[in-house]
Design a protein that fits this description.
5 helices; Arc Repressor Mutant, subunit A; Alpha-Beta Plaits; about 150 residues
């Protein structure tokens, strides 16, 4: 990767719907050269995909909740069972294996027509291997570049 590739990645991170012509102008390349660079970055698996940023309304106006999860132990079987069950949980938007006090940090989206209390009681607490859940509610979300 060179400085132009880094510029391309920065521009795509900010706006993945940018055209080849716009991208080329922003990084100092022709549209076709920018397109070739993007394809090479995709083939090198430095670009893994593209996403649409959805409005809160399009997502059912969810509240974002972060939950620190401590498991009963850190044996591989416990972690694998937890991760497999977590992957089947629709309300979980992201999950991160963490260092430090808790084992996982998960991002939960709770829609207006649901309640976090129900999600906590019926879903998160029932995940295999859970010892403790610590919940933090977001007040406002700032997107990168906003």
């Amino acid at each position: 990767m060179d400085p132009i590739d880094r510029k391309i990645l920065s521009e795509l991170r900010r706006d993945s719907s940018v055209t080849g012509e716009q991208l080329g102008a922003r990084v100092g390349l022709s549209p076709s050269a920018a397109h070739r660079r993007v394809k090479a970055l995709e083939e090198a698996r430095l670009i893994l995909g593209y996403r649409a940023r959805l409005s809160a309304a399009a997502q059912g106006n969810p509240s974002t909740v972060f939950v620190s999860v401590t498991l009963i132990d850190q044996r591989q079987a416990t972690m694998m069972a937890f991760e497999a069950a977590l992957a089947r949980t629709a309300q979980v938007a992201e999950a991160h294996l963490m260092s430090g006090e808790s084992d996982y940090l998960i991002k939960v989206l709770v829609r207006d027509d649901d309640s976090y209390e129900r999600v906590h009681r019926e879903i998160l607490s029932a995940l295999p291997g859970v010892h403790r859940l610590v919940t933090q509610f977001t007040i406002r979300t700032l997107a990168a570049g906003d």
